[in-house]
Amino acid sequence: MDEKVPLLPQTEDATMRRPTPKRFSRFHAAAFAFVVGLFWLARTWQCADPFHHHEDEAESKVPLEIHIMSKCPDARDCLEKLVVPAMANVSDKVDFRLSFIGKTTDEDDGVQCMHGQTECLGNILELCAASEYPDPKIYLGFTMCLSRQYQKIPKKELVEDCALEHGMDFDTLNDCMSREDGAYGMDMLRTSVQRSADLNATISCTVRLDNKKRCIRDGGKWKDCEGGSKPEDLIRDIDKLYKESKGWTE
């Protein structure tokens, strides 16, 4: 990818004031302010929900990450049979991340993809979808839509249809793909591929839950799926981890 490759092969505030007594000293003012402060502090304590302490919601979400290749049938099956159905039920409880598998090199702009250059473009396209539309329910649906016809990635007709289906703007995706003459997307892909390598996620699809390997889809079969490979199994595990992160007990 030595040269730019396009996405397609072608009122005024009126306040009622109470008269101030002539002998309203600084001491009185300070005392008044103190009492008012106590009053509002008490109100705040009364109105606060004892079960919500304004904690950072992101900190209590369960990390869920999948490592895939855009033109891989196992990635398609992993999304369709496990990840997307589970996310439909627990998306508000997870900190989701989509990562890609490849090889970083000093050639081909720094990344090689198992299924060729079109797969690299597909990976970048799906990273752009996640970047421009960060709600996992949106970009995961788009990614699954593409994967159903992964052989056609990144043909314009397929991308347009999937973008329309999931409320995305085709031009927005195309702009991301061609930003900085393609360097922006390639940097995202290289970072993503390096992350997968650092985490020893080398098989598409690898599912990691709570920063641990949870399940693998390889060669049309589920492997190393302790606890089960069905959506309800993953949902159960996420619910358990989420309750633990909140300090909730049964």
TrEMBL record:
tRNA processing as UniProt keyword: no
Pfam families hit by this protein: GILT (PF03227)
Keywords: Glycoprotein, Membrane, Secreted, Signal, Transmembrane, Transmembrane helix
Protein name: GILT-domain-containing protein
PANTHER family recorded: GAMMA-INTERFERON INDUCIBLE LYSOSOMAL THIOL REDUCTASE GILT, GAMMA-INTERFERON-INDUCIBLE LYSOSOMAL THIOL REDUCTASE
Location(s) in or outside the cell: Secreted
Top-level taxon of origin: Eukaryota
Gene Ontology cellular-component terms listed: extracellular region
Keyword Signal listed: yes
Transmembrane residue ranges: 24-42
Family statement drawn from the similarity comment of this UniProt entry: Belongs to the GILT family.
One GO MF term: oxidoreductase activity, acting on a sulfur group of donors, disulfide as acceptor
Phylogenetic placement of the source organism: Eukaryota, Fungi, Dikarya, Ascomycota, Pezizomycotina
Organism this protein belongs to: Lophiostoma macrostomum CBS 122681
